[in-house]
C-alpha cells in the first residue's frame, strides 16, 4: 500500500500540507440564541404552536432546545430557566448569549486569543464541548450583555430525530478547560428518549 493510500486510510487529510493558519475568527453564521425565561415550557409551547418549531432536546431542570422548520442545526433557540442559581439570573426574561458559527476549534481559540490580546476578558469556561448538540464552545463576555459564543462542529438533525431528555450536568459538557464548581464532580450518565416523542413533528402542513 502506498504512503498516500495509507494516509488516506487512517483519515490523514493533510499529507504534505499544513493546517490553515488564521489570525482571527471570522464567523459565517449565527447558529442560535439563548434566553433566560421564567417558564421554558411555555416559551417552547408558543414557538411550537405559532412558528412550527421542532423539539430537539430537553436539559432536565434547565431548559429546552428547539429549531426552526427547515433548519438542520441542532437548535436555533434555547430557553434556560431564569431561576437557576447562576450569575445574572433573576427569574426575569434576559438575553443570555448568541452563538457565532466558526469552522473548527482552531478558529474558536484563535478568535479568543485575538480578543485577549486587545484587552478583552478571558472566557470563564474556556474551550469545551457540549454533549447536547456535540458542539465546540467558547464563550466571551459581550458588550451588549450576556455572552458571545464561538461554536463549531454541531450535530445536525432532520424531522426523523427523536428528542432526548438529558441530565443537566451530563448534557452540559464532555470536556471543559476551566471546570466550574457546579460541574466539577463527574455527572451521572443519564440520557433517555423524550416520553411520548415521535420522529415526525406536529407540522401545520
Would you write up a description of this structure?
With 205 residues, this protein is an alpha+beta fold. It has one domain (32-193): 2,3-Dihydroxybiphenyl 1,2-Dioxygenase, domain 1, CATH 3.10.180.10. The protein is 18% helix and 27% strand. It has 4 helices and 11 strands. The protein has helices at 3-9, 40-51, 105-116, 168-172, and strands at residues 29-37, 54-59, 63-67, 77-81, 94-101, 128-129, 136-141, 147-152, 164-166, 175-176, 191-193. It is globular and about 50 Å long.
What is the total domain count?
Answer: 1
User: How many helical elements?
Assistant: 4
CA gyration radius, whole angstroms: 19 Å
CATH architecture: Roll
Task: Supply database-style keywords.
205 residues, alpha+beta, 2,3-Dihydroxybiphenyl 1,2-Dioxygenase, domain 1, 11-stranded mixed β-sheet, 4 helices, 11 strands, 18% helix, 27% strand
Amino acid at each position: 500500500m502506498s504512503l498516500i493510500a495509507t494516509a488516506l486510510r487512517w483519515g490523514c487529510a493533510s499529507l504534505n500540507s499544513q493546517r490553515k493558519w488564521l489570525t482571527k475568527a471570522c464567523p459565517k453564521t449565527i447558529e442560535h440564541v439563548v434566553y433566560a425565561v421564567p417558564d421554558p415550557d411555555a416559551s417552547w409551547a408558543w414557538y411550537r404552536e405559532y412558528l412550527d418549531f421542532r423539539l430537539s432536546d430537553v436539559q432536565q431542570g434547565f431548559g429546552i432546545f428547539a429549531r426552526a422548520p427547515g433548519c438542520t442545526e441542532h437548535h436555533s433557540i434555547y430557553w434556560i430557566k431564569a431561576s437557576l442559581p447562576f450569575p445574572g439570573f433573576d427569574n426575569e426574561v434576559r438575553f443570555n448569549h448568541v452563538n457565532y458559527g466558526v469552522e473548527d476549534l482552531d478558529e474558536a481559540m484563535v478568535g479568543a486569543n485575538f480578543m485577549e490580546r486587545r484587552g478583552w476578558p478571558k472566557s470563564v469556561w474556556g474551550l469545551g464541548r457540549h454533549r447536547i448538540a456535540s458542539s465546540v464552545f467558547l464563550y466571551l463576555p459581550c458588550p451588549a450583555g450576556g455572552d458571545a459564543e464561538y461554536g463549531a462542529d454541531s450535530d445536525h438533525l432532520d424531522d426523523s430525530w427523536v428528542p432526548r431528555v438529558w441530565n443537566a450536568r451530563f448534557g452540559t459538557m464532555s470536556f471543559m478547560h476551566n471546570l466550574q464548581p457546579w460541574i466539577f464532580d463527574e455527572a451521572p450518565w443519564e440520557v433517555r428518549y423524550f416520553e411520548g416523542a415521535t420522529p415526525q413533528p406536529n407540522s401545520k402542513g
